[in-house]
Amino acid sequence: MTSNYAPDGATQLEIYKRVALLKANDERSRKVIMNGRLVMPYYSYRGQEVIPSAMATALTDDDYWVTIYRGIHDMLAKGMPLKDLWAEIAGRVDGTCKGKGGPMHLTYPKKGIMVTTGIVGSSMPIANGIAWGSQLSGNGRVAVATFGDGASNIGAFHESLNMAAVWKLPVIFLCQNNLYGEHTTYEKATSAKRVADRAVAYNMPGVRVNGNDPIEMFAAAREAVERARAGEGPTLIEAMTFRFHGHVFGDADAYMDKAQKKAAMEADPAPIFRARLIAEGIATEEQLAAIEADIETQIDEAVEFALASPFPELDELTKDVYAQGAAA
Amino acid sequence: MSDTATKAKPVTILQAINTAIADAMAADDTVIVLGEDVADPEDGGVVGVTKGLSTRFGEHRVRSTPIAEQAIIGAAIGASLVGYKPVAEIMLMNFTTVAMDMIVNHAAKLRFMSGGQTNVPIVIRTMTGTGFGSGGQHCDYLEAWFAHTPGMKVVAPSNAADAYGLMRAAINDPDPVLYIENLPAYWTPGEAPEPGHIVPLGKASVVKEGTDVTIISYSRVLTEVVAAVEEMEAAGVSAEIIDLRTISPWDKETVFASVAKTGRCLITHEAVTEFGIGAEIAATLQSEFFGKLKAPVGRLGAPYAPVPFSKPLESAYAPTAKRIAQAAISLTK
Ligand SMILES: Cc1ncc(C[n+]2csc(CCOP(=O)(O)OP(=O)(O)O)c2C)c(N)n1
Ligand SMILES: [Mg+2]
């Protein structure tokens, strides 16, 4: 890998803080659903935490991100506040979208989280437009579009990569390859050996990295960000990973290879990263334990805040369809 | 057509649209244009609607795109989310079908799904219309699809002044607007609009006053309605003609006032009759005027069939002045 982009110790700790937050939040989400306190469609990202944690650490608050239904890890990594997030997934008025978006459509422009789409592949055309805006205004902001391996087979992927390359847009196509699209394996659905290989057809750099390795992932992210900011155009990053809990919460996983899943879970990137930080003296056990305890407290507060928040008034049903008071 | 003062020489609808976009771009740096062939090296559009814009404003603001409708609308949406006002061209209305995800699931819904945090001020220009022998995939009127989508606005001018005024209003509007242009009508001359003339969205115009039957239309078929006046008058029928101009949201106030007076209504458009705009208006009138109508609300659209190629079939497809006159007259019998 391009080691000149490798993260220093402090940066690794920043990445880890995000990883710890994402992991704890996923565990809590599943628990809250299991306990019947919340009913929602939930697409667990457990196992994929390192990818957005490293990517977001390579960005600033002003950079943009367009994510998908399996995207709560992306949002938290990019800085969506826990309380706003939890209230939204609970459908409450204090949610980022007043409860009208829900877990598949969270939006938080204050941290550049512009769109969350439930449509496979649709993050990419929109991220291009955001990046076009950056290019026009010369503000140096980068747009990240994240999507799955399965989404690399839909037309929007191909249209978007082509346009981004022709227009040299400051956009990063971040594919989180978890080896499955719903119940179908990567190999059964995808002609290319690697998603990254598809970049060649669009005349842009394409890299496959171990998305579970924070150093490799960060280096690829940072290089892509630099390219974008320098006006050199888009990059496709294929980050290899695995989703531990199937497609959607409650999924029985019957279609999954048991041995493959077991091996992936044993190679859980979060505790491995944690142990390495301690072994390399980047952080102490006490330091990380304190960070994690603080995260648990913040999540406790967010969950209680969300569940105590009122539901929206029924008149919200027809608000925000168009601008209030616009020529209509 | 009373709201434009004109001493200027007539302009075509095509020129009016071009001038409206140019005036909007001159007034506001955030107005940008994209679509297949729209820049001048590519001839300023397949019909030339955007001719001159890239030369005047630069190719960074007027960009020819790859043939990639999802990417075009996606780029428009994305740019609109960060402060731009894109005018995107989808060359022909049938090609909107390959961008429906971007339009229906994203452009129309992002304001609502974000709880009002974001909005999508884009204009999607698209042309259509029978008459040039293009057959089944190049001239459908699909306005009902978009009008059926909460969050979208839909406009369809029938003359040059309205084409200008609706374009200026659509670009100013904070929500996504589908702007329907009729291909055969591009070269129809009409009164020139005043610079800066705005036709507010959602405002119909009463083209001609009358007492016996209200005829509602929009886009090119409106001119067929006007051409039907002579035959209707010969039959002793006085028609009030309403140009809807904005299909969604439609101007209930103007339509209700007219139907309250005439007690009869015919809605005519080039789209197929079934499940169309006429059905929506008819159902609304039925609720509003139940027991007060002198005749059932009439609808006259294309037959429930794809657009045919063969000339006699194509000519029989869209409503004509003759068929409109007959339908209106029969409502008074
Ligand atoms: C256009 C479209 N087709 C089908 C679906 C249903 N669907 C939701 S997620 C999914 C699998 C996507 O797989 P991948 O892109 O690999 O992302 P992952 O869920 O693995 O993160 C499918 C088929 C959809 N949401 N949108
Ligand atoms: Mg996948």
What does this entry look like structurally?
The complex is a heterodimer of chains A (328) and B (333). Chain A has helices at residues 9-34, 50-57, 72-78, 82-89, 123-137, 155-167, 186-189, 198-201, 214-229, 258-266, 269-279, 285-308, and strands at residues 64-68, 113-117, 143-148, 171-177, 180-181, 184-185, 206-210, 235-240. Chain A is an alpha/beta fold and 328 residues long. Chain A has a single domain (3-308), classed as Rossmann fold (3-Layer(aba) Sandwich), CATH 3.40.50.970. In chain A, the strands form two sheets. Chain A has a six-stranded parallel sheet, with helices on both faces. In chain A, strand 7, helix 9 (214-229) and strand 8 form a beta-alpha-beta unit. In chain A, helix 1 (9-34) crosses helix 3 and helix 1 packs antiparallel against helix 11 (269-279). The model of chain A has no long low-confidence stretch (mean pLDDT 96). Chain B has 333 residues and is of the alpha/beta class. Chain B folds into two domains: 11-190, Rossmann fold (3-Layer(aba) Sandwich); 205-331, Rossmann fold, CATH 3.40.50. Helix content of chain B is 35%, strand content 20%. Chain B contains 13 helices and 14 strands. Chain B has helices at residues 13-27, 53-57, 69-81, 100-107, 110-113, 143-147, 160-172, 221-227, 229-234, 252-262, 277-288, 311-315, 321-331; strands at 11-12, 31-35, 62-64, 85-92, 123-128, 153-155, 177-182, 189-190, 205-208, 213-217, 239-243, 246-248, 265-272, 298-302. In chain B, the strands form three sheets. Chain B has a seven-stranded mixed sheet with strand order 3-2-4-5-7-6-12, sandwiched between helices. In chain B, helix 11 (277-288) links the parallel strand 13 and strand 14. In chain B, helix 1 (13-27) packs parallel to helix 7 (160-172) and helix 3 (69-81) runs parallel beside helix 4. The longest helix of chain B has 15 residues, at 13-27. Chain B is globular. The relative contact order of chain B is 0.13. At the A-B interface, strand 2, helix 5 and helix 6 of A face helix 3, helix 4 and helix 5 of B. Magnesium ion is lined by residues 148-150, 178, 180-181 of chain A.
